[in-house]
Amino acid sequence: MGDMIEETETIEEFLARCSADVEEAVRKAAAAEILPRFRRLAAHEVDRKSGPHDLVTDADRLAELRLTEDLGALLPGSVVVGEEAVHANPAVYEALQGDDPVWIVDPVDGTRQFVHGDDGFCTLVALAHRGAVIASWTYAPAREQFATAVRGQGAHLDGQRLFAGPPAPGRDLVVATSHPDYTTDEQKRALRALWTDGLAPRPCGSAGLEYLAVARGEVDAVAFSWEAAWDHAAGLLLVEEAGGAHLTLSGEPFRVTGGNALPFTAARDAATARRVADLLRTAS
C-alpha cells in the first residue's frame, strides 16, 4: 500500500499518488473474501436482513471489514460508510454529511446474483468529500472487469476510456429500472410511466453493473427508486465522466447525501436523462 496522506495533501493529490493502491485494496478484498465463496456458499453463510430478497453473506461482511481497514489506513482521517456497517448502526450514514473524506463501500453489489451463482455482481467503492463524489472504483471480479472514474479526468474500463455517446436514433431506449422485488406499490406506480412507446424498460440487476453498462453505451438509462449511497455513488460518477447525466424528479442531479426527489434517472446523455425524468415526473 502507498504511504499515508500528508497533512497538507489535497484529496486530488492523494488520488494522484494512491489511486492504484485503492484498486489493489479492492482486488485483494475480492480475492480473499468474495471469489473463494462464489458458487461455494454454505447455507450458514447466507442470512436475510429486512426481507426475503434482502440477502447478506459472509463475503459481504468480511470484504467490507477488510476494505474498511485497508482504505482507512490509506487515508488517515477518512471514514467508511459501508452497507453492512450502516445496517448494524444506521448512525454511520450521517458521516456523508460531515467534513471528513468518506469511503462509500458496497462490498457485494448484486448479492442476490452472487448467492445464485450468477457472475453479475461487483464491489463498489467511491471517495466523497463534503457531499461530492471525487473518485470511484467498480470491480466485477467474476467477469475480470475493473472500471474507474476520477472527477474531471474521465471514466475507464480496464484502462480504456469510456464514452457513452447518445443513443442510436429510431430505436427503443433500454432502461433498467428498480427490480419489482425491491419496490413499494407507490414506487411501482411512479416507474410505470416508463412502459410507453419508445422505451424498453426491464428490471435491473446489480446497480453498479447497470451504471457501467450506461457508461459503456450498452444501456440507455437507469431509473431507480431508492437512494442508498453505496449503490449509486460509484456508478453515477462513472456515468458522468463517460459523458452522461443524472436527474431527480426535482430536475436536480442526484445527491449522495440524500433528500432526493425520487425516482431518479441516470442516462448516457443529457437529452435521454431529461426524457426519462420527464416521464417519471408525469406519474408522480
From TrEMBL:
<keyword id="KW-0378">Hydrolase</keyword>
<dbReference type="InterPro" id="IPR020550">
    <property type="entry name" value="Inositol_monophosphatase_CS"/>
</dbReference>
<dbReference type="InterPro" id="IPR000760">
    <property type="entry name" value="Inositol_monophosphatase-like"/>
</dbReference>
<dbReference type="Pfam" id="PF00459">
    <property type="entry name" value="Inositol_P"/>
</dbReference>
<keyword id="KW-0479">Metal-binding</keyword>
<protein>
    <recommendedName>
        <fullName>inositol-phosphate phosphatase</fullName>
        <ecNumber>3.1.3.25</ecNumber>
    </recommendedName>
</protein>
<keyword id="KW-0460">Magnesium</keyword>
<dbReference type="InterPro" id="IPR020583">
    <property type="entry name" value="Inositol_monoP_metal-BS"/>
</dbReference>
